[in-house]
Automatic annotation (TrEMBL):
This is Uncharacterized protein. Residues 15-26, 74-86 have a biased composition (Basic and acidic residues). The lineage of its organism: Eukaryota, Discoba, Euglenozoa, Kinetoplastea, Metakinetoplastina. Residues 1-41, 68-88 are annotated as: Disordered. It comes from Trypanosoma cruzi (strain CL Brener). It comes from the Eukaryota.
Amino acid sequence: MPRDTSKNEAAGPTEKSDDEPKKEPIMSRAARRRAKKPQVTVTLEMRQAARERLRELRRHLRLLKSNGARRKVAKAEAKKRERETTEAEEVCARLDVGARPLKKSRRE
């Protein structure tokens, strides 16, 4: 059974009037996020800094891959952990035992 298209033809072609505001294009969430951010002009100094960071990162990764360098890198980047309490606080906290024993064998 053929469709009856006479109703659509009677209405005529739909033309957009200039009065209606234009609809904004459908954007993905990522595109909306990008549109919110101000555009950054990349300068020569920024490129050089990025290149230098990449060079340092590659050097660091090359060190990690080389045999035995993990310990060297860890040692170079290690920060000593400070004691949580001072010796005086430890002595005061343990009044029943007294000061910390000098040797492990002297503990009771």
